[in-house]
Amino acid sequence: MDKIVKEPEGIPFLKLPPPDRLWTDAFNKKYQDNGNFKYKPATYIQVANGCWWGKCTFCVEQNNRYEVRPVDEVVEELKECKRLGFREVFDDSGTFPTGMWLEKFLERLGGTNGNITIGCNCRCYDYPFDHMARSGFRMVLFGIESANQHTLDRINKGVQIEEAVKVIKKAAKAGLEPHLTVMFGYPWESDEDSIRTLRLLHELLKKGYAKTAQASFYDPPEKNGNKSQKKYIRQIYRVAYSPEFWFNKLRDIHNTDDLKYLWRQIKDGLRLFTNQDNPTREKRWI
Hints:
With about 290 residues, the protein is of the alpha/beta class. It is about 35% helix and about 15% strand.
């Protein structure tokens, strides 16, 4: 029997049905403005529950069981999204699946964008970026968290910063649009450490390897972040003073969707940069 679920019932992830996007009003403007979508209308999907790494100490996915939906089921949901009129989807799994699952998924999508534009969360890992770009992927989100290896080791990120940068560049060269996330305010980091992260972020944005970026404040439960470093969140916008940054932004414009997307970024950036009342807002785009 159909029913409205108002409280968590512990239903296993793999038994959950896909959402009814008409009943949940997914075309509503307040949802369309939530996210880094280029092509609208857009919506979210969830291929997997959790993250296949699942060891980062700051993350809610730590030690959670990683479960992945069948490829055919996901492909059918994408077809339904396209039938409803959605132009882009973002997969909100902690981390998008890799290995044989991804190979089969890309084969089902075909060599070109046969379904719909896709974005997803990725680890700094050697995904088949060329094949993903040919199959309709656009934005790939990488959580680099910090440019300081001692911090990455301490939060158990499981990557070397030099390798992470190589992966980001490889994704961009394949035609994808990397979005980077970092955090400021680690209690053990100095201002010099934060500036190193800021400089890396600016460098990747200026060179066009990262297309967009986001900064958050490190403040896990029962631990106090270094509040003196909140100032660096807003300073990611100083990249806008770089002519090289704007050269690469303008070079990425190929159609009206690209132009509208850039204009939205400019408006959001100006609004957040001048919002003195809320300098620690967790999600900040550029």
